[in-house]
Design brief:
This protein is 76% helix and 2% strand. With 343 residues, it is mainly alpha-helical. The protein has a single domain, classed as Rhodopsin 7-helix transmembrane proteins (Rhopdopsin 7-helix transmembrane proteins). The chain has a two-stranded antiparallel ribbon with strand order 1-2. Helix 1 (21-56) runs antiparallel to helix 3, helix 1 (21-56) packs parallel to helix 11 and helix 4 crosses helix 10. The two termini are 41 Å apart.
């Protein structure tokens, strides 16, 4: 994304050397978003992710595959939120300067952890699909060890996939901006396309398909259940809550990610006809880019809204209260039933 907000770019032909007021206003709006949006949302997001980690790491929760995914996602989100805030402070508050090595390191870390979080959500959604599609085999397919292995594989794959990111990114003197070097080379174009496919296209398509399939399977299974089976199924309220939580997290991810992908593709495919159009494009990009960053901050609030069990866990954690024996018995029953280990 090219930086159009340098002082020399604030004029147009009709105003000579005088800044165009509309361009100045757009640039100022962009600056305000960069400076204040993240500091307002980041503390709440960081605290929320820490609370998720402290809840999901407890033995009564970490034997459940979905909870294990939430644990790993919260760890990744903590790194993303802290890293983004460090980058924002360095670049926009302390007026730090990007050297090539700083550009390479930041780009590699930022892109890698963002993609890791994306694939963790895809994996959690796929895990939930297996659970609802094959309930009798969920205890085999959806396990704690399986979640750990899958997350290790995600980290290894993404870190290796983004090695070219480290090698090819360079800083642009005077603009404090990182970009791929030798942009006209075929291998740079190929890597940029591969990054879009791995980081956006495939995960978005996968989540849309998996969400649709989960909803279809759940509705179909409810229609096929007998009255007796329905009464038994109602016992697993925790399972239903985790299904809702998974669907909501995946859906919000799609809603917050799809617009920035479309905008990025549009801006990358056009040449601005004027400075005003260029800075307006950058404003729009920054708005949706910051909304996209909310993916790493909103899970705590989504869990609060969709799960009474999570709300109880938060209460127990914050007020240091004991877990009700009935709650512990209910969770133990779920964990002892092979068909319920899927949750």
């Amino acid at each position: 994304m090219t930086n159009y907000t340098t002082s020399s770019s604030l004029t147009n032909g009709s105003h000579g050397d005088q800044p165009d007021p509309s361009i100045t206003a757009i640039v100022e709006a962009t600056r305000l978003i960069r400076t204040y949006f993240y500091p307002i949302t980041a503390p709440a997001g960081l605290l929320g992710n820490i609370i998720i980690f402290l809840i999901m790491v407890k033995p009564r929760n970490n034997h459940i595959s979905t909870s294990m995914y939430m644990l790993f996602i919260s760890i990744n989100d903590i790194f993303v939120v802290m890293g983004t805030e460090a980058y924002r402070y360095y670049l926009f508050i302390s007026n730090g300067v990007f050297t090539d090595i700083k550009c390479k390191v930041f780009s590699y870390i930022a892109v890698s952890f963002s993609q890791i979080g994306t694939w963790q959500i895809v994996s959690m959604t796929f895990d939930k699909y297996l659970a609802v599609r094959f309930p009798l085999k969920a205890g085999v397919y959806c396990t704690q060890n399986g979640v750990i292995i899958i997350n290790i594989m995600i980290y290894l794959f993404i870190f290796l996939f983004n090695v070219p990111n480290y090698l090819l990114f360079v800083s642009i003197p005077g603009l404090n901006y990182c970009t791929l070097s030798n942009g006209s080379k075929w291998y740079v174009s190929f890597y940029k396309a591969a990054t879009q496919v791995v980081g956006f296209v495939v995960p978005l398509i996968a989540l849309i398909i998996l969400n649709t399939m989960i909803i279809f399977v759940v509705r179909r299974s409810k229609l096929l259940l007998s009255d007796t089976e329905s009464r038994v199924a109602q016992r697993s309220d925790v399972e239903n809550q985790l299904i809702r939580m998974t669907l909501i997290v995946a859906s919000v991810f799609v809603i917050l990610t799809l617009p920035i992908y479309v905008i990025y593709q549009y801006i990358a495919s056009i040449t601005p006809k004027s400075t005003k159009e260029a800075v307006l494009n950058q404003l729009i990009y920054n708005i949706f880019s910051h909304l996209n960053k909310l993916n790493h901050q909103v899970n705590f609030f989504l869990f609060l809204a969709t799960s009474s069990k999570f709300r109880r866990d938060v209460k127990h954690l914050l007020f240091c209260t004991r877990v009700n024996k009935n709650e512990m018995t209910h969770v133990t029953e779920l964990s002892d039933n092979p068909s319920d280990k899927r949750i």
